[in-house]
Amino acid sequence: MRKFHWPKYSVLAIAVLATWLTTYFGYLTSFNLSIDNMIQQLILFINPLSFLLLIYGAALFIKTAKRRNLYILSVSVITSVIMFANAVFYRFFSDFITIPLLFQTSNFGDLSSSVTANIHGGDIFFFTDVVIIALAVKYLPQPAEPVRQFKMGRRLYFIATAALFMVNLGLAEAERPQLLTRSFDRELLVKNIGTYNYHIYDLIVQSKSHAQRVLADGSELSEVENYVHANRKEPSKEMFGAAEGRNVIIISLESLQSFVINEEMDGHEITPFLNSLTKDPDTYYFDNFYHQTGLGKTSDAEFIVENSIYPRNGSAVFFTHSGNTYDSMSEKFGEKGYFTNVMHANNRSFWNRDIMYKALDIDKFYDVQSYSIGEGEAVNWGMKDIPFFDQSVDMMKDMPQPFVSRLLTLTNHHPFDLDEEDMLIPPYTSNSKTLNKYFQSSRYLDESIKVLFDNLKESGLYDNSIIVMYGDHYGISENHNKAMGMYLDKELTPFDNAMLQKVPFFIHIPGEGGGKVMHELAGQMDIRPTVLNLAGIDAKDDLQFGSDLFSEEHENFVIFRDGRFVTDKYVYAHEVCYDTESGEPTELELCAPYIERASKELEYSDTIINGDLLRFKDGQQPADENQPEITGKD
Ligand code: GP9
Ligand code: MN
User: Fold this and answer.
1) Most C-beta atoms within 10 A of its C-beta, which of 237, 332, 353, 457?
2) What is the CA(530)–ligand 2 centre distance, in A?
3) Which residues are CB-neighbours of 273 under 8 A, at least 6 positions away?
C-alpha cells in the first residue's frame, strides 16, 4: 500500500484548516451564543470540521489539479458567503437564516434594505480563508494525479470524517438530548452541529413539508370541513360576550400538572394561590382538563391555543410549518381591533417563534430583549417568573387596549432548579431528583401567579381583563413512575399515566361572580373556541377541533396527540381499553368506535397542516401573498 501523501494535498489541508478557523472565529465574533461550559465550547470548536472535511474532501475525487483547486476555492467562497450572510442577518434578527424566510418573497424589499444597513467593513474577515486558500493554490506545489493505491487513504479520510461527525453528534446529544428530533432552537442547532450542518438539516426539514404542500390542491379541505362542521357544538349563548372588550391575558403555566392542585406534599400546600382561585367566585376551574401536545411541548400548546388544531406527531409544527396560512385566534382578535402579543423572556428563535408568530398574525413578540435581567433574576432556563411578571405588567400598562397578551412562564421547567431563596417548601424525598424538585418549583410558579395578580390589580388593568391559565404539558414523564407511584401511593398503570396528563385550566373573570369548579372532560383544543366566545367573537365557521367549554353540547371526548384518548366511559392507552370509573382494563371492542374517530381526527388535522389547506379556505389570500411582514428586533 502506498502512503497517503499529505504534503501533496496541502492545499486541501490548508483549506479545511483555514475555513474551520474562520468559521469558528466567526461564531465567536458575530453571534451571541451562550456557552455555559467547556464541553459546549469544545462542541462549538469542532462542529464545522466534519462538514468541511466532507465537502472539501470531495476534491479527492477530482482528477486534475486545476479543477481540484477551482473546486476548493469555490467551496471556500460558498462557505464564507454562508457565514457572512448569517452574520449580517443575525445583526438584524438575532437569528440564523432559515429557508421559509427566503421564500417569503414579499419581504425581500424590507430584507434587502436592512441587509445593506447591517454590513460592516469588518465582514471582509469572513473571506480570510478564501485569501489564504488562493495564496496556497498559487504558491504550493501541486500533487501528482491520484493513482489507484490512493483509494485506501481516501477511504480512511472519509471514515475519519464520519467518525468525527458521530463524535460531534454524540457530544451534542449528551448536551442537548433530542436536539434533532425536536429541533427546538436554531441557536442550539448551530451551537451543536454547526452552521453548515444546520443549513442541510433545515433544507431537509423544509423540503419534506414543502413537497406535501405542493401535492395538495384544496380538494381535501371540504372533507375535513364536513367532518368538523358535522361535529360542531353550539357555543354557549349565555357566555357569549361575557368578557367582551376586556383585555385577554393568557398564561402558559410551564410544566404544571393537575396532580399538584389542591394537594399537599409532606404537609406542605404546593400551589396555595391557585388553590384559592379554584374556590374564587370569579374563577372557573376545570379539573378534568388535558394537554394535547406532542414533541413541540410549549410551542404545541401555543399552536393548539391559537388554532384548535392538533400539532404534529414526531416534530414541532412551529418548526416544520411556519410558512403555512393559519386562521389563528390572534388574527381574529386583531380583526376586532385588539393588540395581540406574546411575552416570553427567551431567545426569539426558540421554537422558531419569531417566524411562526408572524404566520399567526401576532402583532408583537416581547422576547428576552424586551426584559432586563438583573443579578439573581435568572435561574434554570432563564429569567425567573416573578421578575418576568413584574416587567411584563409594566409593559402591559403601555399597550394599546384592548390587548391579548399570551405570557409564557419558564421557571418551572425541567430540571426544575431553583435558587435557595426561591425554595418556599422543602424538596420531596424519593429516588427521583426531578420529582423532588418539581414540587418546590411548582410552588414558585404558584407564587409568581400571585405576584402577577397583585401587579395587575395595582396597575389598574385587572378589572378590565380576563385571565386564562393553562398547564402547557406534563413536567414529570413516565420515567419517574416509581417516584410518582410513591407520592400517589399506588403502582402506576398506563391508565394512571393517561390520567396524569391532566393540566390545570382556569378562566378568571374579575367581577363576573359565576365561577365554579367545572368537571367537564376537556382539553387544550377547547381553549380557542371558549375564549373567542367569551370575547363575543363568532367562530362558528372556523375549522376548530375543540368546542366551547360552556356549551351544553360540549362532548366528553379528549384525544391525545399520540392517539390515547379519554371519554367519560373509557380510557384508551397503550392499546388497552380501560374503564374510566374503575381504571381496570375492559374489552377492547368497547373502545373501537372511539379509536377510529380519534385516528380520523388526528389524520384530518395532519392533512390540514401538511397540505397547508387553510390557504384554500374562503376569504384567505393565497399563501405566498399572505406571508407576514418580517421586521427585525422591535
Ligand atoms: C422555551 C420554553 C420551554 O422557550 O417554551 O420549552 P419546552 O421545553 O417546555 O417546550
Ligand atoms: Mn413548556
Assistant:
1) 353
2) 22
3) 446, 447, 449, 450, 453
Dihedral angle of Cα 163, 164, 169, 175, to the nearest 10 degrees: 130
Length of the chain equals: 634
Q: Point out the ligand nearest to the CA of residue 316.
A: 1
Q: Which residues are catalytic?
A: 298
Give the Å distance between the CA of 301 and the centre of ligand 2. 8
Count of other CB atoms within 10 angstroms of residue 62: 16
Q: How remote is the CA of residue 387 from the centroid of ligand 1, in Å?
A: 18
- Cis omega before residue 415 (within 30°)? yes
The whole-angstrom separation of Cα 294 and Cα 317 is 9
Residues 504-535: pLDDT tens digits? 999 999 999 999 999 999 999 999 999 999 99
Atom of ligand 1 nearest to the CA of 347: 4
Contact 419, 410 (CB under 8 A): no
Query: How far apart (Å, rounded) are the C-alpha atoms in residues 629 and 358?
Result: 7
DSSP structural state of residue 342: E
411: nearest Cα among 421, 403, 398: 421
Assess whether the C-beta atom of 411 lies below 6 angstroms from ligand 1: no
Q: Could you tell me the end-to-end alpha-carbon distance of the chain, in angstroms, rounded to an integer?
A: 62
Which CATH number does 220-369+408-622 carry?
A: 3.40.720.10
Where do the structural domains in the chain lie, given as residue ranges? 6-212, 220-369+408-622
Query: Measured between alpha carbons, how far is residue 211 from residues 544, 609, 612 in Å?
Result: 25, 12, 11
183: left (phi > 0), else alpha (psi -120 to 50), else beta? Answer: left
Sole residue written with cell 422591535: 634
For residue 351, which ligand has an atom nearest its CA?
1
Atom of ligand 1 nearest to the CA of 473: 9
Ligand 1 pocket, 308 CB below 6 A?
no
Cα–ligand 1 centroid distance for 297 (angstroms): 7
Q: What is the best residue among 95, 255, 257, 298 to mutate for testing ligand 1's pocket, by most ligand atoms within 8 Å of CB?
A: 298
Interval 158-209: pLDDT, tens: 999 999 999 999 999 888 877 776 666 788 889 999 999 999 988 888 887 7
**Residue of the CA atom closest to atom 7 of ligand 1:** 298
Kindly list the protein residues that place their beta carbon closer than 5 angstroms to ligand 2, a single-atom ion. Answer: 254, 297-298, 472
**Helix, strand, coil share of the chain (percent; to 5):** 50, 10, 35
